[in-house]
Write a structure and sequence with these properties.
The chain is mainly β and 149 residues long. The protein contains 1 helix and 9 strands; from the N terminus they run βββαββββββ.
Length: 149
C-alpha cells in the first residue's frame, strides 16, 4: 500500500491499483490528467451534485430531464420546444379547481395574460385579440364577442 501525506494527513492511499482520496480532501486534476479511456462508463452515474453547481458550457441530457423545485428559471432569449403540446398544471389529480387561474403571462409595463377561469369555464384575455378579419374583444358585462370594433 502506498500513501501520499500532505500536512500530516494521509490525503491519498493506493491499494491493488485503486487510489482512494480521504474524506474532506479536495482533489483538483488538471486538463487531460486522467485519460478518457481510464474513466469507467458509469463512473459518475450515482453522483450527487450539490451546492449550486454551474456548467460553463453546453449541457446535453440524453434521457428524461426531471427538475424538482418551487421555481424553475430559464434565462434564455428564445425558448424552442419541438413538441406541439405544452401541459400546464400537470398534477396527480387534475381538476377545474387546480386549473383555475392557470395560463400564460407575458411581462410588460403591465402583465398581458391568458388565464383559465373555472367559474365561467372560459379563457380570459386581459388584452384585445386581433383576428384576420379585424379586431375582436370580449364585452365584460355581457360575455359576448364583438367583431371589428
Amino acid at each position: 500500500m502506498a500513501k501520499i501525506t500532505l500536512n500530516g494527513i494521509d490525503a491519498l492511499t493506493e491499494s491493488g491499483g485503486t487510489v482512494t482520496v480521504a474524506a474532506g480532501t479536495n482533489l483538483v486534476l488538471g486538463t487531460g490528467a486522467v485519460p478518457t479511456s481510464a474513466i469507467a462508463d458509469d463512473a459518475v452515474t450515482g453522483a450527487k451534485i450539490e451546492n449550486n453547481p454551474t456548467i460553463a458550457g453546453n449541457l446535453t441530457v440524453a434521457g428524461t430531464l426531471t427538475v424538482e423545485g418551487v421555481t424553475t428559471t430559464v434565462e434564455s432569449v428564445t425558448l424552442t420546444i419541438d413538441d406541439k403540446n405544452i401541459e400546464l398544471g400537470s398534477v396527480d389529480s387534475p381538476s377545474d379547481t387546480t386549473a383555475d387561474g392557470g395560463g400564460l403571462t407575458l411581462k410588460g409595463t403591465t402583465d398581458k395574460t391568458i388565464l383559465y377561469e373555472k367559474d365561467t369555464k372560459s379563457w380570459d384575455f386581459n388584452q384585445k385579440i386581433i383576428t384576420r378579419s379585424g379586431e375582436a374583444y370580449m364585452k365584460s358585462l355581457h360575455r359576448s364577442w364583438v367583431m371589428g370594433g
